[in-house]
Amino acid sequence: MSAQKNADTGNLLKSYTPYQEKDGEEYMNEQQIAHFTKILQNWKQELMEEVDRTVNHMQDEAANFPDPADRASQEEEFSLELRTRDRERKLIKKINDTLSRIEEDDYGFCDSCGVEIGIRRLEARPTATLCIDCKTLAEIKERQLGN
Fold first, then answer.
1. Apex CA 18: angle with CA 11 and CA 105, to 5°?
2. DSSP states of the chain as a string?
3. What is the pTM of this model?
4. pLDDT at 4 over 60
5. Where are the domains of the chain?
6. Looking at residue 71, what is its pLDDT?
7. Which of 17, 8, 7, 12 minimizes the C-alpha distance to 93?
8. Residues 31, 114, 23, 120: what is their CA dihedral angle, to the nearest 10 degrees?
9. Which residues are CB-contacts of 82 (< 8 A; sequence separation ≥ 6)?
């Protein structure tokens, strides 16, 4: 079993078994779809649990410190947590969109050129919508435009 690092949030997804392709296997067959659905649902669950932990932590730790420096430190800590949760909220939306793509049989193919994204790329980034070539090209264009 290997752990999948989530670059968007820095969290580790729970361990999963990488998909073992069989010779001549059809791309995005039922087993592959089930594999990615499970990865996405587990990832979403972990993010939702983190949201709950943050809410509980902020409620438990909320205090009105008399010292302005202590109060400022706590506000900064809460601000960072809320910023992280906001990024995770956006990620949950991407996960939901990806789960919808799976339901519509539109998962695993590049939005730009239509080729297979590939099992390993999808395991590395389950919400990917572009193949590696199109994503690389998009990043080059983005850098050239300075966005």
1. 90
2. -BPPB-TTT-PBPPPBPPP---TTPPTT-HHHHHHHHHHHHHHHHHHHHHHHHHHHHHHHH----SSHHHHHHHHHHHHHHHHHHHHHHHHHHHHHHHHHHHHTT--SB-TTT--B--HHHHHH-TT--S-HHHHHHHHHHHHHHT-
3. 0.77
4. no
5. 30-106
6. 79
7. 8
8. -70
9. 54
At residue 112, what is the residue type? Answer: S
* Structural contact between residues 130 and 138, judged by C-beta atoms closer than 8 angstroms: yes
Question: First vs last Cα of the chain: how many Å apart?
Answer: 38
Tell me how crowded residue 110 is: count the other CB atoms within 10 A of its CB: 18
Angle between helices 68-103 and 30-61 (to 10 degrees): 160
Q: How confident is the model over 5-63, as pLDDT tens digits?
A: 343 334 445 567 899 999 999 999 999 999 999 999 999 999 999 888 887 777 777 77
Name the CATH code of domain 30-106 (choices 1.20.120.910, 1.10.1760.20, 3.40.50.720, 1.10.600.10): 1.20.120.910
Contact 58, 81 (CB under 8 A): yes
- pLDDT for 146 equals 81
